[in-house]
């Protein structure tokens, strides 16, 4: 499962994927939709899983997203508290 949550509004979107890397194209598609409606995502903060591939794909010629990527430190769920709460709500 992958979640994207806006820290300002709490709005989130989720999806279930067979492998970690399968969320990247759909996430880029969602980010592009938000950009096209004037709601461009400026920063994505995530754990290190698939960060490099996600960052490369988002900045590719296919998507041309100028989103900045940041990582949370390992074993620090407090830095992902918004997403962790969404996971709890889904369970």
Number of helices: 3
User: Uncertain segments of ≥5 residues (pLDDT<50)?
Assistant: none
Mean pLDDT: 80
N/C terminus separation: 11 Å
Order of helices and strands: EEHEHEH
| β-strand amount | 15-25%
Q: How would you name the oligomeric state of the polypeptide chains in this document?
A: single chain
Cα radius of gyration in angstroms: 13 Å
The main sheet orders its strands as 1-2
User: What is the overall shape?
Assistant: globular
Helical content (DSSP H or I, runs of 4+):
25-40%
Instruction: Briefly note the structural class of the backbone.
Output: alpha+beta
Q: Summarize the biggest pleated sheet.
A: 2 strands, antiparallel
Count the strands?
A: 4
């Amino acid at each position: 499962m992958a979640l994207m949550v806006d820290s300002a509004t709490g709005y989130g979107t989720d999806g279930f994927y067979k492998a970690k890397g399968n969320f990247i194209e759909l996430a880029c598609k969602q980010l592009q939709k938000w950009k096209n409606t004037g709601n461009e995502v400026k920063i994505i903060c995530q754990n290190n899983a698939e960060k490099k591939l996600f960052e490369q794909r988002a900045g590719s010629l296919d998507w041309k997203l100028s989103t900045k990527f940041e990582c949370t430190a390992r074993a620090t769920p407090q830095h992902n508290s918004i997403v962790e709460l969404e996971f709890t709500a889904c369970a």
